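cron nightly-structures :: item 1 of 1
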Amino acid sequence: MKIAHINWSLGTGGIENMVSEIVSEQAKTDDIALFVINDWIEDYILKKIDNRVHLYLIGRKSGSRNPFPLIKFNLLLSKFHPDIIHCHATGLINLVFCPYGKRIRTIHNTFNPCKEYPKFDRLIAISKFVKEFTANQGFDSVEIDNGISTRNINHTPLGLFKDGKLHFVQVSRLYAKQKGQDILINALSILRDKYNKTNFHIHFIGDGNDKDMLVDLAKSKGLQDFITFEGRVEQQKIYKQLCEYDLFIQPSRFEGFGLTVAEAIAAKVPVLISNIEGPLEIIDGGKYGKTFKSEDAEDCAKKLNEFMEQGKDDKQIKAAYEHVVKNYDVSVTAEKYLEVYRSLLSSKSE
């Protein structure tokens, strides 16, 4: 099959990282192209992409009304003559004038606008929760869970921290409205003041528009010595060092899935997440990780205190690791996508 994947960028983010891994996996068996519309390109993501993938960087400036990049895109897409056109974000299908190929859309989160969904031959939801949300919008979809490259995630600690403290980590874009870093900072303040816990340090990995607000919040709580904002870190480094942390915390207000939760589990790090649907699926309702009430800093602090009192559950960590490798490896995701493509093309030929 000739399969064209299309995304807006190859910047930092879960979608971009996953798309780069999906196309590399599918290139082992099929003819794959990746079209990147805008000019936000991170070198470390480019380096991950298998050299068998046809890579087309269109170079459009975000928000530009210049028609020439889109003309270039459609000429290259038509020349590739795809059997499948797979879009990974809202608005991309409106750029496609190529007459070839079945149209696929992966819905990577809840609250996606659905006006363009009728333009696709098949919709794919990244989790049971996203599938249910899409159904409530009036559209059927196939559930294919997101995947991670488990084989590239180190789970043998090398002793990065030698200060005797517990080191917590949170990995995501600094966008509190969704990711809930403000909830976590408030919980850490409660952990210190109510539970008298001070033997911890948390690392926020990621960048985003809410960094200044979160730094100010940490200062207002007197937590400067307990928090490090690491900024943007390349995925390769995250995959190497994630296993060094004692606990991964994801306080999101909403998520379609939760790639970073799966990555932490693959690094054999225990996880504490807000009890929202997407990440809750990954830990099977609490079987493979701990939860706290969504948006409840008090409950988050309580669960953090319990972790500091009780320590790691090695049996749960081992079972969680096996669960993620079996169910959320990118090879599983890529093959399920191929099955959907084959089904569409088969029905077309009948």
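cron nightly-structures :: done
The longest strand covers residues 31-38.
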